[in-house]
Amino acid sequence: MANETAAGWSRPQRVLHWTMAALVLLAVPVGLIMTALPFRELLLKFVLYQLHKTLGLTVFVLVLAQLALHWRRGRPAWDAGLPAWQRRAAVAVHAALFSLLLLTPLAGYLTAATAPAKIPTLFLGVIPVPHLVGTNPVWFGVLREVHVALATLLVLLACGHALIAVQHHLKGRNTLIRMLRACE
Amino acid sequence: MRTRQRREWLRPAFGIGVVVWLMTALPAVAASLYRIDQRYGVISFSVGSLGLFTTEGLFPRFEGELLLDTEAPERTHIDVTIDAGAVAMPLQDQADLLRSDAYFDTAHFPAEHFVSTSIQVLSPTHFVIHGLLRIRGVAMPQDLDAVVKDRHFDQERQLEVADFVVTGDIKRSAFGMVADQIMVSDTVRLAIRIRLTVGVQPHGE
Ligand code: HEM
Ligand code: HEM
Questions:
Q1: Of A16, A73, A121, B20, which alpha carbon lies 20 to 30 A from B2's?
Q2: Which of A94, A163, A183 to mutate to test the pocket of ligand 2 (most atoms within 8 A of CB)?
Q3: Is residue A38 part of a domain?
């Protein structure tokens, strides 16, 4: 994806990674709660939908920034002891994660825009985000399934990714450490 | 009534009766009684949320009578019953919420009812319908604004048709619907569109 000359992950790269990860891990339970909440809880439901959409849209923007940094600055060299297949697997998983990090919010946005309920999307609860496509119950049904499928895939992949990162750490590699703090 | 005496007494009474009938019944020639229901139009409503967006709904089932007097509109009379349980919203969950006890409480009050008490003529095509609206068993005075839009001759059906657009702002709290004050505006905008054939005896059953 990019050159491997950088010494470690830059501070912006690290901050973006963890912020983005935290937002994804927050958007999921909020998404599950908001949809499960009965309609009687109208205000809370509305607030949680707006929070979910705000978290998801922020993820989208942060991921664009992360990708831009990745292309401009590159990534640190792979651990010397890492077998080639594991490196290829890591590249594939990271690429899949990046794709899902863009596609999931995109599908979410389209779900919100096509929803028959015509609830506006308010970034941070105040800034209206225009819905570029109109209400469409059929597309809403499809997009909602797509959004949830992508989100599920994203979470599963991110969990696997995190587990492998921890595993590398336990094996004494500095993979995780250099995502946590600066290294020369 | 068989005695001659009584018949003599009946003659002037009959004469007066004819005059009274002519006075009262003649203008009524222009009055037509319609049995209206969902085939004649739609009853929709909208509520605002946080002043940011509106949500619309429909009452797809209603029935009633409209005595329409085109010559003397102030004699027009309306009596409509709306099936509250049939309320339709973009989402089934929203409709279920409206049926619940916090809103229409359709388990106890399956219907809403409006009956006119008087008609105020603002212009030949603009009226205010004063009436009584009953929701959740609470009857409150309610004014509706009625405008005759697009009265024209339908060439195909060889009939004169007119669209009536009736609007009104209902305060839902007045009927005890006080839930979700932040998310659902107190004012509910009612919009009724009815298309009727006018100037001929209606075909209503
Ligand atoms: C990384 C970003 C995102 C993740 C991980 C995510 C995840 C989820 C999850 C887990 C659900 C619950 C599905 C269910 O239980 O039915 C959901 C629902 C939803 N999401 Fe997202 N979402 C993200 C971004 C977005 C964005 C950016 C928007 C809109 C701008 C959005 C709009 C929605 C909507 C409208 C629903 C509810 C669909 C329904 O009514 O069934 N999401 N999302
Ligand atoms: C929703 C959660 C997460 C997502 C979406 C995610 C996504 C990503 C992506 C896309 C990269 C590649 C960055 C780049 O190439 O610029 C990455 C790298 C990394 N992530 Fe995550 N991540 C998540 C959570 C975690 C967690 C929980 C951990 C640790 C426990 C972790 C540890 C790492 C590490 C160590 C790297 C650097 C890998 C390397 O040096 O090749 N991530 N992550």
A1: B20
A2: A94
A3: yes
Give the model confidence (pLDDT) of B33-70 as tens digits. 888 899 999 999 999 998 888 999 999 999 999 998 87
What is the tens place of the pLDDT at every residue in B59-100? 999 999 999 887 888 899 999 999 999 999 988 999 999 999
Phi–psi pair at B187, nearest 5 degrees: -85, 125
CATH number where B175 lies = 2.40.128.110
**When comparing pLDDT for A118 and B171, which is higher?**
B171
Give the burial class of B201: count Cβ atoms within 10 A of its Cβ; 0-12 exposed, 13-18 middle, 19 or more buried: exposed
- On whether any CB of chain B is under 8 Å from the CB of A116, the answer is yes
The total of structural domains in chain B comes to: 1
Pair of tokens at residue A102: 């863009």
Residue A111 maps to a domain? yes
Q: Indicate which atom in ligand 2 lies nearest the CA of residue A168.
A: 35
DSSP 3-state helix, strand, coil percentages of chain B (rounded to 5)?
A: 25, 50, 25
Cβ < 6 A, ligand 2 pocket: A 13, 17, 21, 24-25, 66, 70, 75, 90, 94, 97-98, 101, 158, 161-162, 165-166, 175-176, 179
Predicted complex ipTM? 0.74
Hey, is A79 helix, strand or coil?
coil
Query: Which domain, by its residues, includes A120?
Result: 11-180
Please give the residue range of the domain that contains residue B143: 2-204
